[in-house]
Amino acid sequence: MYNKNVKIKEGSEVMDRLNELLQELGLTKVKLAKYLGVSRQMVYNYLVLDSLDKWPKEKKVLLLQLLDIKDSSDKSINNIVVNTQYLMEVEKRLNNAIKTSNCMDSCVDFSNLTKEKRTLLNDFIFLLKEKLEDDENGGATAIRYMYYLLQSMDNIPEIKYFLGYMAKSNGFIKPEDYAFNEEKQFIFESILYTALTLYTSGGASKSRVAEHHQKFIQEIEQKKEEKLSRTQELTTVRIQALRELGYNSINNNNAAEVFEKIAEIESRKV
């Protein structure tokens, strides 16, 4: 007599072993998503199913090919032994498949990057694309903010400390790792932890922090005014330089001369 509960249990055990196998191989959800041609969230959805047979047929076939499994039976997947040779074979099949299906190497010049950096950039772009597609949760806005953050990173070292903190708190790197200035990063992480603890505990109401937020706004407005003032000043100097040289505009032929005149005009103020 067919026992449906036994079938479900066997399927569940296969999925448990599959998840263990992916961890042993160090196969990230990002890479698996690229290999299967689906979103990272879809990979999560697949992996919580109680049976591999509930996967879309073509995705199931791709996974079996990647792991070199003949079928989705409990016996087949339990017979896998993860050793160096098997790990290298899976990695080779994975990279070949991703390279074939991914156009990034031809769209972006990766020639000056190491293999590790090319992989990082490729994974990063894949995640960006996924977030932009999922715009219902404000994906595009968050990515735009991230773009601004990257633009500011060279001038604001605390951005790197913040990224390090987030990587540590989410378990991606060890908490004792300090890739930048260790002392400053340590202090920043300690202060940020205190602030976030206060935030998550509910001890910081809007009314209690309103004064600090107003100072935050005033500081931003002041920076904007300073930037606008500097822009206006540069515009005035540029117009004066063009007038003194007898030009109407800056072009490729006179750019060097105009910039030299601008520097000379600004030095008069010293």
Can you describe what's shown?
The chain is mainly alpha-helical and 270 residues long. The protein folds into four domains: 1-101, no CATH class; 105-152, no CATH class; 155-204, no CATH class; 221-268. The chain is 72% helix and 0% strand. It has 13 helices and no strands. It has helices spanning 4-25, 29-36, 40-47, 57-67, 74-78, 84-101, 104-107, 115-133, 139-152, 158-169, 182-201, 206-245, 255-268. It is elongated, with a radius of gyration of 28 Å. Mean pLDDT is 82; it is low at 1-10.
Counting helices, strands and paired strands, the structural category is mainly alpha
Number of domains: 4
Cα-based radius of gyration, to the nearest Å = 28 Å
Summed over residues and divided by their number, the pLDDT gives a mean of 82
Tally of alpha and pi helices: 13
Strand content: under 5%
**Unreliable runs:** 1-10
Q: What is the subunit arrangement here?
A: single chain
Q: What distance separates the N and C termini?
A: 97 Å
Helix content class: over 70%
Describe the main β-sheet briefly.
none
Number of strands: 0
The rough form would be described as elongated
H and E string: HHHHHHHHHHHHH
